[in-house]
Amino acid sequence: MKLGTKLIHAGVEPDPSTGAIMTPIFQTSTYVQRAPGDHKGYEYARTQNPTRHALQNALAAIENGKHGLCFSSGMAATDVVMKLLSPGDEVIASSDLYGGSYRVFTKVFARYGIRFHFVDMHDAQNIVPFINAQTKMIWIETPTNPLLNIIDIAACAAIAKEYKVLLSVDNTFASPYLQNPLDLGADIVVHSATKYLGGHSDVVHGAVIVKDDALAEQLAFFQNSCGAVPGPQDCFLVLRGLKTLHVRMQRHCENGEAVARFLREHPAVGKVLWCGFEDHPNHAIAKKQMRGFGGMISFSLKDDSQAAALKVLSSTKLFSLAESLGGVESLIGHPATMTHASIPREERIRNGLTDSLMRLSVGIEDATDLVEDLKQALG
Prior knowledge:
The protein is 35% helix and 15% strand. It is α/β, with parallel strands linked by helices.
């Protein structure tokens, strides 16, 4: 099946009891057994749920994986992947990554003896000097949050394979519509399904997709043992979101380009970060591994002050000031004080996350209206 067809049909079958075309919400905590251990494949809802099962199959299919696992949030998905590690293990992570990932790495897992190296991965070869006998995982985002850097997944996968370490890719910003890391050699794909997969800002959800059976078995053990599973209503909402991912992402990409090109010409704007620009440092890699450039844009002002940014942030009307991304409505945020506030200022500045940097999640409204909104807010 082509991707658009797969998003609507893969992993989902009509309900056998009624013929319902939409997967029912199985709102139950337990299942009746005919005798101890004699059941219909479901025992307890933390372990299995038919609605979640359908979503997990769909997620595996759209990422060209074999196993999908669902979690109560993107951070719960990240947490479970980190539980593959043991005290003394080391992780090489991209230096520009979501603040929540940085926080759980440095404030939670570092306490349990896992060491993290944060590396500029503009050139994948920068990873190699940090690999040693304790290295067990490479963790990347691409495009990165919020600086829209592009990391060469295939090059990272080649390094991971050579040194026999796992490569985990947070694919939240791109979504399976734009790229499939497993096809490029990654071992693990992580999503905050809250974002583009759900697509309507009405659910919090996380997902992990893998091909390897043994890896899936480990992750499923942690999923059940630790219990950070989503409810069936949340799974239903993400299943619904998947069915329109392709049409939404096409509009996100179209609107993103229109907004990025407008911002680049505005006299008050200092720098625009969008991987679709031909002079983006890794544009060629983005073009090779992605099917489009997405609706995520960050920009800074020539007046690179927090005060100047706050004036813009409080002046938009269609771009709502809020955390999160990937919904049908456009959002604007200030990473330094919102999504990335947990990263020390000196580290933010060193990575290029300045005080005036604003992040846009460009929605699927009319692009002309979005441009006009930013024009009036910028003055």
